[in-house]
Amino acid sequence: MLKNYFLVAFRSLLRDKFYSSINVLGLALGITCCLLIMIYISDELSYDRMHSKADRIYRINEFMIDEDAGERSSSLPFPVGPTLRADFPSMVESQVRLFDYQSPSLMLENKETNKAFNETRLFFADSTFFDVFDFELVKGNKETALDEPNSLLLTETMAKKYFGNEDPMGKILRFQAERDLIVKGILPDTPLNTHFQFDFIGSMSTVRQSFNGRLPRTWYWNPCWTYLVLSDQNSSKELEALFPNFILKYFPEFLHGDVKMTLQPLTDIHLKSDLEFEIQPNSSENNVYVFTVIGLLILFIACFNYMNLSTAKSAKRSKEVGIRKTLGSKKSYLITQFLLESIIITSIAVIVSLVLFLAILPAFNSFTEKSIGFSMLFQPHILFGLIGVVLIIGVGAGIYPAFVLSTFSPIKGLKGEQKGKGGNLRQMLVILQFSISIIMIIGTSIATDQLDFLRQSDTGFDKEQVLYISALRTPIAQKYEAFKNEILRRQDINSMTAVVDALGARHQGDNFRFEGMERSTLFSVFWSKHDFFKTFGLNIVQGRPFKENILSDDTAAIVINQALCRRLDWREDEAIGKAYEYGNRPGKIIGVVEDFNFASKHRNIEPLVIQLRNNPGSFNLLIKYLAIKLDTENIGETLSFVEGKWNEFAPGRPFDYFFLEDELNTLYKDEDKLSKVASLFSGLAIVVACLGLFALASFTAEQRKKEIAVRKVLGSTIPQVILLLSKDFTKLITIAFVIACPLAYFSIDSWLNNFAFRIGMNPLVFILAGIGTLIIALITISFQSLKAASANPSTVLKYE
């Protein structure tokens, strides 16, 4: 019996090769899209789960919030981790801190070969690093590798970079031209699915040498990412409940009431954390939801295609059903037969989709910046997912056509009088398909516009052709003025300053008490040298900028932004001359700068203090970059000039640079990825929908070929016949557009509300999406319509 079911199923598929191929290809494309998204989401959800204690590892975050000022930090002061371990040994099994000097780059030098590079992924960690994280060593003993000062671990790629084919164990790398680090171990390259990527891990005891032999004991400066391993998962809430008293006991009094600490599960960081000072940009949980919905919608479109064609073809199988029923076949047997055909088609589609997946995966990895391997297919949840796809799609998409076909009257079927059922359903499915497609096109277009807005809209400062050079702990600190004078000799260089961070991307925070405030509060602060406002084209609306001939500006003057005036309820003109305290030092406000986006446009413009750092000591500790404003079309020649001067003033130090505009674009990497992936799958959704429409138009034209022949005999022209065949589909797509617009509007408006700076929704985007979809659909239909309209009527009617 089962053999007969399969035999009949395969004969049926081979009899209608064209429609079977359309069904298989449509389902294969849908399943491939779904599989790619499933693999992508699986990778996103896998972050940091490779550690055996992942379910008990937590990062501590610190929040210092006072109205619209403050800081949401992923890092903590040095003493927090060890003190928690000492105070709560029954709950805290282990702790580890990561520290990177909060620097743009750290120079390492191979003294034997004179290879020197700036490295951005060098962290110093406690000796408990391997007690918390399950990273392995290819060489070395992880029990002791980080015990001693000046110990260094490096990845295999970095070992190759610095030592070639030599054994790096015991070799020396010079750190910041200050001290020798001894290679104590080799790590495999960091897996991509971890929230922090590293190339080097140094021992935390090495850091003591930068702070007079001991780690900083301040409870205010917060440069360490701190992780705890709790004794069990249930300890997290209990430990968090103890944090308020812990803060009162150890943190300085002026922070009491403002500081809050929270525990964040390690496995939540990649998708659920958007704090300041993250080790690297994280992804978003919203993207997982969006991609999940996109994958399901494309799969639905493919299923709708199958249901459409199956019900449309039902009239062609009426005689088969009639004969089978006459010979005694039961309704249940017929349903089983047609469901089996559906499962076979789905199974073939899955096989085709696997071939497509293997072919597309390398390009998909490049497109999404992933390194997903073919082995992901063999993970249990993926395998069970594929089996589930076969059963769910095979039964789900085939159940309605099976019941429709099994209810045919045998008498009408044998007479050829049985009409295909499901006309209304087919129309509804076409409407649903194109509603989904239009929503995806509108969503993708607006997401792209929002990304362009974030990147290109006015930030309030000049970001174009601003060259940043990493200068922390270099000889430039002592030679800054001489270097600046040499640089400014070139006509296509407008100005130069030195800054603490990439303006518009990152900033620091510090406590200030302004006139009228009872206690100091943490405010965003940006440290710089002179010519800061000139270099970035910032507009001083009241007062003046810092001046080199006014020495008191170095220690007793600040410039604030308009947002800080509003925060303190001051008019901009009355802010000039107002007093403030910074630590124990008094000073005066000398200027008010027009608001600008000193941080990402994901956030509103907050109060900001701009403070001068002009002495070499503070330059070495705080000033990290030189910022040079260029005005040239010949970037290469100007860069060569700057590099030449750099080599004169900082010999042996790598010339490490980037352009500010490129750095700012990385802030919106998450939106960029969402836009690219959504665009790709929106295009595929239209392809899958049109594939079904093509087959449906072909079937409709075949059904109406006699009517078309009669109309042509009576004088209808080819354009009139094409219009006749296209009219019904045009109505369906128009209805789909009407349904899609409000759904797209409300869903996209909700997404845009996540941005402090957002675009409005241009009605033209909706109109163009509808017109574009209609044109694509009409082009798809026109091929079959033209073929039917061009047929010789005598060929069709000669047997009638």
TrEMBL record:
Q: Determine the domain of life of the protein's source.
A: Bacteria
Q: What is this protein called?
A: Putative ABC transport system permease protein
Pfam families per UniProt:
FtsX (PF02687), MacB_PCD (PF12704)
Q: Would you name any one GO CC term?
A: plasma membrane
UniProtKB keywords: Cell membrane, Membrane, Transmembrane, Transmembrane helix
Q: Where in the cell is it found?
A: Cell membrane
Q: Which residues form the MacB-like periplasmic core domain?
A: 20-241, 436-597
Q: How does it sit in the membrane?
A: Multi-pass membrane protein
Is Repeat a UniProt keyword of this protein?
Answer: no
Query: Where, by residue number, does the polypeptide cross the bilayer?
Result: 21-41, 288-309, 338-361, 381-408, 429-447, 677-697, 709-726, 732-752, 764-783
InterPro entries of this UniProt entry? ABC3_permease_C, MacB_PCD, Macrolide_Exporter_MacB
Q: Name one GO molecular function term.
A: transmembrane transporter activity
Q: Which ranges carry the ABC3 transporter permease C-terminal domain?
A: 293-410, 680-793
